[in-house]
Amino acid sequence: MFAQQCRHFIEVNLDRPDHHAFYKDFLTMEDWFRGLFMLHEVPWTDRSNTLVFIDEIQSAPTAIHGLRYLKELLPEVPVIAAGSALEFVLKELSAAPVGRVEMLVLRPLNFREFLTATGKGSLATSLDSIASSTALYRPLQQAFQSYLKVGGMPELVVNAGDSARVATLASDLIASYHDDLARFATPKTTSALRELLMASFQRGGERIQFEGFIDRHAKRDVVRNGLKVLEDGRVIELVYPTSDVQLPLIPNPNRRPRLHPVDFGLMGHLVGMSGAGGHDSHRGALAELVVGQELLAASFSPLNRLHFWTREKARAQAEVDYLLPVAGRVIPIEVKSGAVGRLRSLHQFMERSDAPFAIRVGDLPYSEEVVSFSDQTPYRLYNLPLHLAGEIPRLAALWVTESD
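Below the sequence we write its predicted structure tokens.
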């Protein structure tokens, strides 16, 4: 898509032996680039209109180091570099390209992107407006059920019409994650990595303890270090709770984290939730994971993180599924269906915070209401269907502006 804006496109994959060898034949990045242009028959005079895409750049760490000089040497050449295990290499580099390279995290497709990719562009456009998405509630819900079965991994979405093919691709993808990440695990962790990977997808959405995560014989450090490998590789995210109701939201590493796999669709295929009715027994956890994945996909920033709130005191435990920072405010998000009277944790959060409103996401049409609990001050509650979860950051920013 970026390449369509340029006259020429040069793609390099440094995982390929021939591409890697060609890179090593040159002493400087500028010489290498000139060589690439010659090899691809692209005029050097047309370099400002040529996109160079360097894939699997982690296979040549010196190329990552060299990126920092491209802005000074060849600022006119647009360059994109990507890598499936880039985070591990960046941590080891003594001179990462800080300040000269924009870092972006590419996440699975969100629901809007899923609609566009599967030929439902008009439905995707309807998400722009509360009125149009409400009018199209039923077709959007039906499309969302398809999204739940497939998930957001691009190769699975491309094959969304072939359930058998999707299931095979999901299994292959999980296996490839293990093979990729095993290179970065310690010897002790490597032997447990496959079990940790499978357990992470099977227990997605749970708050976990490191002891006994795999079995009672697995040592805490092995589990912790193995999960850290999976997290650094962005296969999972461990979301630690916070007790803060205002910014900054500081996670508490001493509390049990909630485990989020990279894609709820992969989790569904692994644990057999992708068949008809298969999601019912995991409905609550799946809904929470979908909303979390949609919130993460709303930004490409590496700093975009998930937050959830707990108040863990004797006989007074409370938990709110997500907290969303918006314009200096903290907006609570609860993922569930049911009567307002069951939202006790949300009521407790609102009693302690200055949030102008709260959001509930579930199997329900859009609505808004004013609610209160006990003697606390009433607050506004926006009810959103699951298919609008990806629009929450945009809508919340609008509602915060209206409330000020």
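The chain has 16 helices and twelve strands.
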